[in-house]
Fold:
Amino acid sequence: MTDKNIGISTMAIHTGNMRDTQYHALTMPIYQSSTFYFDTCEEGGRKFAGQEDGFVYTRLGNPTTAVVEKKVAALEGAEAAAATASGIGAITSAIWSIASAGKQIIADKTLYGCTFSFLAHGISKYGVEVKFIDTSDIEQVKANLKENTCIVYLETPANPNLKIADLELIAKTVHAYNKDIKVICDNTFATPYTQQPLSLGCDVVVHSATKYINGHGDVIAGFVAGSAELISQVKLVGIKDMTGAVLGPQEAFYIMRGLKTFELRMQRHFENAKLVAEFLDKSDKVTKVYYPGLESHPNHNVAAKQMKRGFGAMMSFEVKGGKAAGMKFCNALKLCTIAVSLGDAETLVEHPASMTHSTYSAAELAEAGISEGLVRLSIGLENGEDIVADIKQALDQI
Ligand code: 7XF
Structure:
């Protein structure tokens, strides 16, 4: 099923499915095999040369993984998608497939900590220039585009402070300068449930599928989605030769299972998040709430334009008393759990400056708008009123 007009759940449940003609199993079997046999040497040769379709070796492709790739491609409105062993595997496989020595990457300065680290300390060792800017300011994007720019890289909403950038405006501006520059958007926080960067003009979407796409906190995985040509490069160069970040068929199966309830989960996540954000916004213990659904968010209008079904379930905030009070709040929570990661059924709380963004120096954190006292919440699937009650009792203790 590839009809673009079908709904999100229908797509997540049906797109890409293969019929098991041998045993009539309803769910896709896990093809737990590293290699695939050939009837003849000639057949193997043809498959290696790309003259004949079929699976050869799981680092190059696997039937179970191929089904979940089709589902994620459909959800993102992409021609194709490549599954990877982690979100960082997706990001590095995409970037290694596009960038080369002598080229420039423009990246937002507010990114997930290890993405920042890869750009600031990893790929920059290999002759690739990386310029960190604020992509929510289009003038900064314009001022930094150069003849050798090959990628503009951003997250929106950004981890951890939910900064919003205008994807349509950025893609239009970048492509008017040079249509070959790839605009890459990490869509992990928003998910394709509410935001499809490719439909807004971006070239590549990357995901940590460890989060909402799998949704159950039991898998590390990632995806790259984009044109068939680019995904072929990501598979044949980025994943096959540069990173080797291949998703295993067992993980692909878990993601397939998680996707069956993707839309239902996202609806509940968003409903709960709205309740919590409104509660935090009114609390006199809280000095600032970062949630794109609040009108007080500086780019609320841009978020409303590009996030079609709501504003996500991630938020961060600062409490009166700064870092010490923020830590006290986290430690006082009973239902919500102190853990990094996001998009799980459980509500999770963490302290970005010492955890997910500890790869930033103190000066870099300040520059990226990540305060020492910032507390980040991933709102889960529990009953919303129970999450609010737990947050209230913890705030009452500071
Ligand atoms: O390689 P991973 O599957 O862990 O994904 C990396 C990644 C990529 N993009 C974004 C926007 C992410 O948030 C992540 C992972 N973030 C977790 C977090 O912020 O809690 C990692 C825990 S250290």
In short: The chain has two domains: 8-259, 262-396. The pocket of 7XF is lined by residues 86-88, 112, 115, 155, 159, 186, 188-189, 208, 210, 220, 222, 340-342, 356 (CB under 6 Å). The mean pLDDT is 97.
